[in-house]
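Structure, all two chains, one model.
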Amino acid sequence: MILVTVGTDLPFDRMIRVVDDWAGETGRQDLFAQIGKGGWEPRYMRFAQFLPPKQFAEYFTSAGVIVSHAGMGTILSALYQRKPILVMPKKASLGEHRNEHQTATALRLVEVGGVNVAFDEQELRAKLDHLDELSIGRKIGDFASDSLLSGIRDFIFSSKS
Amino acid sequence: MPQEKPRLLAISSGGGHWVQLLRLQPAFAGCDVIYATVRDGVRGDVGEADFHVIRDANRWSKLNLVRSALGILCLLLSVRPDIVITTGAAPGYFGARFGKWMGARVIWVDSVANAGELSMSGEKAGAFSDLWLTQWAHLAREKGPRFFGSVL
């Protein structure tokens, strides 16, 4: 299954339309999209505006590929579960997000995380046509890096507490 | 006599902020931890731990901001934490701000999503955070934020 998600906040019709066209043209039946509240409704994919967290987690676990906005929750889950993920950054200039951070995040995550990124609709379509070429990102552990955890810990248990 | 455990409030908005907060959990070992976030559906993520739902908000809706802030203020008054840790965004900022007023020590971990520049709330939180962190080495500055590592 391919799980498509726009996150829990604003819809991302630009991405959903491309994936839905692709689903229509290829005839693939195994897609499910979480489109966000008030999002454009796909014609070919199964979809929900929002899935309860538990159900979303089940879909996520059974998915072979994740297609997503460049949101950290989804990216961290994909890296952790070793699933190929293709992200497209939302743009605040198009009303898709509240600030422009997703593009910068996506650029960095290509470098450090091995995340697959499509910066626009054409690139998304091209990468959907070659899904088997998507890389699986960097392996991450159960928790944050040891240096971050010990830094926080040292602070919590330093003199004043 | 055994020392009392520090009371730690771990607070954030939903989605990626919450996922990042959960990835910091081992750092809280030995604390009395209280979690707060915006969706009841993720309660199961922290098992039997003390868990509170707060109202989400962002800077585009002033009314929601006020409602969210009031709810979080009430939470802070009942929890009385020694430490507040947050990964953002607006609800985390309120938790940190109010916690500071009440004498808690504040840890701000700016979201790893902010790779190009610090978040607006993260920039503001720097003024009063006792431990002010970015998750990107290239965003660390001499006067803070500091970089220790990331949730990746």
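Chain B touches chain A through 50 residues (CB under 8 Å).
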